[in-house]
Structure formats: structure tokens, C-alpha cells
Write a structure and sequence with these properties.
Length: 134
């Protein structure tokens, strides 16, 4: 997947929150990747697809305490520096990968024409944070 997803999908002309999509934690051999968690929640009488940008690592069970701490600090630093417009850029990048550039996409669970098939519409609109304009 790193060959298919470029950091530029998460960056804007003024905001560059992602420098690499996949690599290793500095000073370790621990592989790390940008990813997103997906889950569905029922709120306000409708279903919502929740997208959470995350950083995943492949930390061996027998990793040293130093490697564990370097990895933990790397992930913490990467996540904590992404707030407001940086977080919005990362979120918009994942939404673009899921939905594309269209305002919405319709998906069928099974793609069958006969019988009952669940159909979903996913909108590009996100609920994100930002500075209020007053």
C-alpha cells in the first residue's frame, strides 16, 4: 500500500502533516505506517462512519524497553503535533481515499440485483475542528 498512497494526499499547499506513509521508527527496526481506524456508530437517529487517523507499529513482543519507549514516543509525538488544520488535512486525505473527490459515494454490501441488498451513501462532509470566524 505505501506505493499506492503518497504523503501528498494528506497535505495541502499550506499544511504538510504527513512526511512518510510507511517507514521505521528512528533509531529502531520497528516498522510504522499511517493508517485509519473505521467504525460505525448510531447517533442522532442515523448511522455515522467514524474515521480515526492513527499510526500503527509492528513492535515485537520481545522488544527491549528502550525500543518500546522510542516507539511510544514516536507515535505520541506524531499524533500530538497534529491538531486543528493538520488533523483536518489528515482526515480529509483519508476521506479522499475512501470516497474519492466526489461529494458522496453509494456502496452496496453485496452488489446483487435480485433480492435485498444493503446500500450505503457515504458523504465527504466531516465534522472537524477549526478556528471560529467571528
Amino acid at each position: 500500500m505505501p506505493e499506492q498512497v503518497r504523503p501528498s494526499i494528506f497535505n495541502t499547499p499550506t499544511t504538510k502533516p504527513v512526511d512518510i506513509v510507511s517507514g521505521t521508527v528512528p533509531n529502531t527496526d520497528v516498522v510504522c505506517s499511517e493508517a485509519c481506524g473505521l467504525r460505525v456508530a448510531f447517533r442522532l437517529e442515523q448511522l455515522w462512519l467514524l474515521v480515526e487517523p492513527i499510526v500503527i507499529t509492528e513492535l515485537a513482543a520481545d522488544a527491549s524497553a528502550e525500543t518500546f519507549e522510542l516507539t511510544r514516543e514516536f507515535v505520541r509525538e506524531r499524533r500530538t503535533r497534529r491538531h486543528n488544520c493538520l488533523a483536518n488535512a489528515v482526515l480529509d486525505g483519508w476521506i479522499s481515499l475512501i470516497v474519492g473527490r466526489e461529494p458522496s459515494v453509494r456502496l452496496k454490501a453485496f452488489g446483487i440485483a435480485d433480492g435485498i441488498d444493503a446500500e450505503f451513501e457515504i458523504l465527504r462532509t466531516s465534522a472537524f475542528s477549526g478556528i471560529g470566524k467571528g
